[in-house]
Amino acid sequence: MNTLSLAACAVLAVFLIGQLVRRVIISRSGRNVTPENVKCIAPYPVQPIKGRERYRVMMDMRKLDMENWLTIDKYYMDEHRVRSKLLEKEKSKVLQCLPESYEGCMEMLEEVVEFLCRQFPNVFECRKHGNETTVYNRMTGETFVFGTDNDQIGPLEIAVRLTMEDLSVLMKNSDGEYYLAASASLFPVGWTVEERIGWTISKLHDPVPLWHQQVASSVSKFLGRLTPASPMERSNYFIEVRRPNEELLETLYRPNGLVEEGMDLSPRDIIIRRERQTFRRLPRSDTIAFGVKTFLTTLDELPLEELKNLEKEIKSWPDFVGEYKGKAVWGAKALEFCKERTKMLGCEKVEV
Ligand code: HEM
């Protein structure tokens, strides 16, 4: 190859890399999301399963990716239909606000509306007249007005009718402990806000094995020290099974827990349910805004590396942890699938 063709190749390579980088930037930038192309927007990348050798309850906090505090993706409309139905039929189970949380809920709504209109200007439009704000959602055709003397819908409800995230407001009680003062938890696992509103973070986690021994005091320190300038995020995963042909609402809204006994499971019925949890201190109300985005991946969609990591983690759980996580229902099938897939893909690699 002569110098000229080498130079041409280099220019082409630089051009192609540039195009690739541009594409990644465009696909991640909310500014390019429109009601028409939202069906093509991939979800925010979830944290991969790490494959820890020893089980521990972890805080595993990282700095919040503030540009993506709230996210919009191709599942927006499907999940929005589920959220609307739950708010219509099961409102008291999924939404509760104690009276003292009003200021925090209003500040949360203002933050949500400001964020969505700034990050997704082709989707959400916001107008202000004095104290009154109108927000228009071009995807659903809905309009919400707030800041008037007779608001029709409460602030937290408006906020979760706009977002894909569940939202809660945490406040400090007279003992200095944080508690759930308001919550719109439409996609809960094994609980409802109707029964747990007002509970402290510590009491909420009573059923979680090793919570009090391993993490309770770090969590309470973390919440106390959170400032408006230090927003954080963490991830969690659960394993869930679904019945064949189950509706999305039943998969996402799990007030009675994750597991169903006595089913003949296929890998498509075993779901890795991941949550991205965000924590922001709201400066005016001095409350904490807690957000939870739920992502569903079936076992057969997991990349090989993560499947191996999942297998490693499941095997590391002590029996009482496995019991809490419902391993008796899905464990044998999931481990069998991990083993077969690893063997199959391992062999393919050798053949190539
Ligand atoms: C630093 C913060 C937090 C950490 C480290 C944390 C960690 C955890 C963990 C490890 C579990 C068990 C998941 C599993 O293994 O299946 C869990 C469950 C749960 N968390 Fe959190 N969490 C945090 C914040 C919160 C907050 C702010 C809420 C408020 C709504 C919350 C509500 C719950 C509930 C209701 C459960 C289910 C408990 C049950 O089984 O009944 N968590 N959390």
UniProtKB/TrEMBL annotation:
InterPro entries: HODM_asu-like. This is Mannosyl transferase.
